[in-house]
Amino acid sequence: MGCAISPILFVTAFEVILRGARQVVGGIRLPSGERLPPLRSYMDDITTILQTAPCTTRLLEWFDELITWARMKVKAAKSRSLSIRKGVPQVKTTFVAGREPIPQLAEKPLKSLGRQCTADLSDRQMGKQAKQQLAEGLAKIDQSQLPGKHKVWCYQHTLYQCVMWPLKICEVPMSEVRRMDSLTNRYFRKWMGLPRCFSIAGLFGWNMLELPLKSISLGYKQEKARLVLEMKDSTDHLIRSAKVPIRTDRKWKAPAEVENAISSLQHKEVMGSTQTGRAGLEWAAPRQFWSKATKRQRKTMVVDEVTRVEQEHFHIKPISQGSQEAWTRWEATVQRCISWADIWRTPQSRLSFLIRAAYDTLSCPRNLTQWFGSEVGCPLCSTTKASLQHILSGCKVA
Ligand SMILES: [Zn+2]
């Protein structure tokens, strides 16, 4: 631990053994014409994919001999094997490593880097697992004695990141992600002291009031867009040519969205630096152009574009909602961005008041009349159906 040279020494020595073992068999040929190496490794973890069972047996025997010569040992119990014949997983074929049989994937599923590998080679259970992890985590945070805003912070900085990883690497459909979102939103509303009818556009949209919260579906879309680019622009030519399909949903297809984002960025370049706002010429920061950006900058640009498209939905959604779209008609109002530092400074009840005031969901007489049908008026001037504006700044008596 902590030694900078020992991992390098280990990898160098291990590479000698791997090269020795690779000479026995040839790798598998991909449909694109590329040939995969028979053994692929990361530190001391090795994966091998071969066409026939005798080939695998020969490779394992030879590898075993080499590893024994290097005074190391293969742990068969920690390894898994899977044989497929004509698309159907086989149970009969067993392989041996270090004189012990390797357990089959069908008998013992394996968890590697957060992904559960089973014999049916599907990620269907991963979505359910991620949802369960989220539900358990949210319930645990909810049970704690912390104030509501602390609970939100706990979720956003710990649980959110844990859930995001399986969503990125596994084929989890968008519908499952939406279900996870609605589960989280229920807790958000409870913790922030907001009514149940409060719109998600208010929670996650960058509207007149911008909260430092991020929805799971937005994170999912960003991660999938990143994954598409990572696969397409990988430095490894095998990954590039493998053309790994990234499946999401029928409604939101990651590769198509990335293509749209790229064409939109190229279109913006054709338009050039245009003036936005009233700040004056050359006042804004110089715009980044697609053709001049590096690979890393392009990735950020595409993710930003995906985020922008998602934010547009939060601008469109309120139009169809009765009372919570009041902010869309505000003129000359400066957008207010609330950071975590602001949240720590503001008392919980005032924060809740601020959010509810921005989206007109406070219990003013007009809303009370609408919600419960009770005829209450302004306590000072007894105007019936007095709106929030009347209570805050319009009442003549006050
Ligand atoms: Zn009044």
Give the end-to-end Cα distance, rounded to a whole number of Å. Answer: 70 Å
Query: How many distinct helices?
Result: 14
Mean pLDDT: 87
**Number of E-type strands:** 10
Principal-axis shape: elongated
Overall SS class:
mainly alpha
Low-confidence stretches: none
Approximate strand percentage: 5-15%
Task: Give the topology string: H per helix, E per strand.
Answer: HEEHEEEEEEHHHHEHHHHEHHHH
Whole-number total of structural domains: 3
Q: Let me know the largest β-sheet.
A: 2 strands, antiparallel
Bound molecules: zinc ion
How would you describe the oligomerization state of the chains in this entry?
single chain
- Neighbour order of strands in the largest sheet: 1-2
Radius of gyration (Å)? 28 Å
Helix content: 40-55%
